[in-house]
Design brief:
336 residues, alpha/beta, Quinone Oxidoreductase, Chain A, domain 1, Rossmann fold, 2 domains, seven-stranded mixed β-sheet, six-stranded parallel β-sheet, 8 helices, 15 strands
Amino acid sequence: MADNRRFHLATRPEGTPDSDTFDLREVDRPEPAPGEALVRVLYLSVDPYMRDRMRAGESYAQPWEVGGPLYGGAVAEVVESNGAGFEPGATVVGNLPWAEYASADGSDLTPVDTGDLPVSTALGVLGMPGRTAYFGVREVVEPKADDTMVVSGAAGAVGSVAGQLGGLQGADVIGVAGSDEKVEWLTGDLGFTAGINYETEDVRERLGELADGVDAYYDNVGGPVTDAVWSHLNVDARVGICGQIALYNDEEIPTGPRKLGKLIETRARVEGLLVRDFAPRFREATAHLGELVARGDLGYRETVTEGIENAPDAFLGLFDGENVGKQVVKVAETSE
């Protein structure tokens, strides 16, 4: 009997995905093989990088197969263990299908311990986005006291944490976001020095008014915002390329201003960032971020969409800037 709902990739989108990209199927609940656990999904993560997995070409993430399940970070509760190393009722996190129930090898699951915080934070401030910000700031962008640091996509899951970490290291942080509400959250609640609404303000001009150049740039979006920031780079600036959401839906990457010549003038360093490169140090990052949240030094927000059937809407909303902080989909209640 089909007692499980699961999303599959219906077709490879051309340009911006839409509802026809996703196929919600009723399937059987899986039986865990030896070494596996059957889990009930509680929260799904939807993230911009998933757009790249819808393409056929090679990328840093393996593409999804047309007709195959969609996968992403998820928090789940163990229902049954077939030698997976977890007791029923344990809360775990792993890369799981967009489904109500899934089976996974025990070695691919990690226990969730978020303390007094909601278990959903294992997908946000204490999960992949938080760790991405942690290593991107500490190892790539390296803001120092009195530096001017700019963060694009600053009200998202990664950018909001990255900007706060830069501020804790003494930098003056300018966040670029897409609404006045987001800018107010950054400057009012999170302690950013200033914010720019790229929808209503000229980013290049506003940066010139706010700062004497940019020493550190944490880039989550690419496109016109990055073009604007580039013109303000200081000598020895550090640029971390974390995401390019402004370009993910383009079938052909547009040719913007030629930017490499600026690196000769500034001797700036530009480095790409993949958080999986830091996997041996994930525990370090999660522990540090948890301490900061507990002390009140690191704020976060979640945008929660209810119901697995609404996962595509949550994902598509990322490209319209609908989320503030981390976007998650609540699939089921935690058993008490």
